Amino acid sequence: MKKSSLWSAVLAMGLAATLSVGFVGCSDDDEPTPEIVENPLEKGGYYIAGFVTDGTNGLEGVTVKTNGAETTSGAGGAFLLAVKATGAYKVEFSKEGFVTVTSAAEIASGAKANAVVALNQDLTKANPSVTVGSDGMELVEASKEISTLSIPADALKENAEISITEYTPGAGLSANQLSLSTLQCTPDGQVFEKPVVVSVKNGTSSDIYFADVKHWTEKNGTWVEEGDASYDAAKNAYVAEMNHFSNHAFGPLCEVRLGQVRENTVSTAVIDNLGKMNAVEQEITMTQRSGWEVSGSLEAQLSNAFSGLSSSDVRALAASLERSLVKIQGTASAVRESTVSLGKAQVSGDMKMTVDFVETTRTSTISFGVFYRLQYVKASVEIVNYLGCTPRISYEYGASHPGHSGGSIH
Amino acid sequence: MEKRIKKTLLAIAVSLSIVHCQLSIAQRSLGVSGLLNIPSADMQEDGTFMAGGNYLPQEMLPREWGYNSGNYFVNLTFLPFMEVAYRCTLLKVESTGTWNQDRSVSLRLRPLKEGKWWPSVVVGSNDLLTTRELNPFQDSGGNRYFSSVYAVGTKHFGFYGHDIGVTVGGHVPFRSKSEHRGVFGGVSYRSAFLEPLALLAEYDSKVVNVGLSARLFSHFSLYAYCYDFKAVAGGIRYELTPRSRVFRPEEVRLPWDGRVELVLYPQIRLTNSWLDKIYGAEINIAPAVEARLWKGAAFVGQVILPVWNNLVGQMDYVRAGVLTLSQEFGLPGGAFGRVSVGNFTNNRMGADLKLRYATPDGRWLFGVEGGVTGSSTFYEGKWQVSTWKRVSGAVEARFREKRLGLDFRVGLHRYIYGDQGVRVDCIRHFGRTMAGLYALCTGGEVNGGFHFAVPLPQWGRSSKMRVRLPDYYQMEYSGQSGLEYFYRRLGQGYESRPDEGGGVEYENYDL
Lengths: 410, 511
Description:
Helix content of chain B: under 10%
Number of helices of chain A: 3
Number of domains of chain A: 2
Largest sheet of chain A: 10 strands, mixed
Oligomer: heterodimer
Low-confidence stretches of chain B: 4-27
Structural class of chain A: mainly beta
Strand content of chain A: over 45%
Distance between the termini of chain B: 78 Å
Largest interface: A-B, 48 and 70 residues
CATH class of the largest domain in chain A: Mainly Beta
Strand content of chain B: over 45%
CATH topology of the largest domain in chain A: Immunoglobulin-like
Radius of gyration of chain A: 31 Å
Order of helices and strands of chain A: HEEEEEEEEEEEEEEEEEEEEEEEHHEEEE
Mean pLDDT of chain B: 87
Number of strands of chain A: 27
Helix content of chain A: 10-25%
Structural class of chain B: mainly beta
CATH superfamily of the largest domain in chain A: Carboxypeptidase-like, regulatory domain
Number of domains of chain B: 2
Shape of chain B: globular
Number of strands of chain B: 27
Radius of gyration of chain B: 26 Å
Shape of chain A: elongated
């Protein structure tokens, strides 16, 4: 052999060995094949998630339950209910010392696996009871001081322990009712010999007040109209009568026009396992927003709608409206952010999983009537609801996952 | 007077029947010889290679396309009477919304060549077969969107340098789901004054189309037409007819004289097996040091350098290619052989033995080969090898038909993963260029495709260490590479040298 050839061969071997990255490993297995696993994220199941608050701060330890699922709100009031099927759910929120409420939530048919429906709910501490005798009493609701019950003499045959609490009813149970005041009156079913007069303050001056204000009572979870709560200019209040105790609401009729649902990818999680043969596991969490807010500035909208209305009336009307919307929304206007764990995702070897978290929002228009300087005026306000978040899973397949019979040229 | 009239009529008849086949060949939307959207009985010159693309408005596409699309194709007149084409029509995958493609094959055979008094006749088919459905008459077997079988005749009439081609044909109702039925026909006209331009009009069994084609720079053909007077379609193709050419001495590689050579192997791999991309593509440059050690012994050390790919895996890493020590030897009776040990192609490593015997007249070549190998991969940047436990081998025979330059090759194979099959190759030599068709049945699955080898220019003969390109750039297309073929790893083989495979086989004892 020529010396130069030998050296060339040695050099060539060295070159090839040097340029080849990594190190040589030896196994009994043949060519590596990707480990195939079933991704638990694909298996289905849905969530109802959100916050329980006292109107301002999160409430811990609230029992949240629905058909076959129960959980307790954690620190900050966040809760996560796992349910198995799509459909309409009634969710009960209860905590010792607070008014128990039931909200409605719906997981739309065709929802993708692990879809999260947002649900926020305010709970209200029940007011202590007072003793009312046959001589009657003027009873002002303690926490908000919006409503006053005038129990006339001889309305009660004997003394009764009576409590009234201005509370936030369950979300989603009434579609066409705003509520200036929602009262839980106990004992439930208490009958009065004479009608009890309820006055609900008009927050503004008498220049402007709501039209079509009704009195509803809750019967078996449904709000039933009892009659009018007519505006009394002298009292600057809406006045109605009740003959028995239940949950009562007083507010104007409204028309809710549901707007278009918008989807927006708010974040993305990626498990890139391309080029690797072993399956991997990773916890998937997503941040979702829940709640509602007025689209833009409510005061500005009202100022434009009612030119000439004093700024104090504008502020008061805006406050009344926001409070009224609580009956539909179940919570004061606020948008909260929570982190939801969807569990562990498993991704097969040589695959890449991308999860786009798609937030769903809907803008709705709520119309109502007012008397503005004795003229009937139709007004409306736009609100945005944060309905939930859906993880949308897609895969990129590596070289070892052909998708069809294909062809190859090389 | 009567004689004069007869002579005149005869002269007109003769002048009308002057054949100008080459000039009248027009384009066709499916990438085969024909008019606009119909086939004709014209054939390209023997060995003509064509490649191109067409724009296809949705009006002329099957109902599965609800949008405008296009196709691209390669076409070869494999024999003077046989034309084959492979075509991909772009379509959108519903599940991913991404573009992919529908593959189809066309075959045209000419039983009758055009003569002075008779037309040429071609029978042909488009999109006849589909994966896992080899019976063309079966209605099942989904995506044969362009399936048709037809017979067509074309006659050219020439006068004073002008050419008129008349085409008449009909579709054979071979399958009820075929959308092509009934008769079709068309006329082409090429002026004596502007030969590159042709006017075309046709009835394609459904609608009437009119258009024109133009030939540019000797190798390009453009065409555009109005489909049913509703939409505009068109396309472009490149045409190349190989000429027998004597290579200059410096262009031909001499037998290996013992110098060390650095051979720069380009590697391109395109795989259409995924729904989210048209091609998984991989482009590498793989330089190999090839050195002669002693008589008959050689070392090949190749490194694969990734240039670009759209996949993730070992293709991202600099890795070893062919890394072998081999020894050639002679055997009694003119037989010869080669034993190789090392890292082979297709992620294999092991030992390989090849034995060959060629008859003295070169018409027959017989071969036996076998090897024991394990895997050799670079996943996650680590060179991982398995024990050598896979036994594969083949028995092959080749017959060379010298007049047409045809090789017929048949081989019984046991492939790497134990599947056994038969592979038949038919290879045509156009000078030093080779093009082949093959069919393979292994593990109960049928596959097939084509391969070609194009000679590359050689240089640098005088230096001690020569840097050069390989003798050939070769590629092989296999119709099936995914699903069943992939998961069962059917038809998997290897080469022990980087310059072998496809139509280029071990046949010379030149070390």
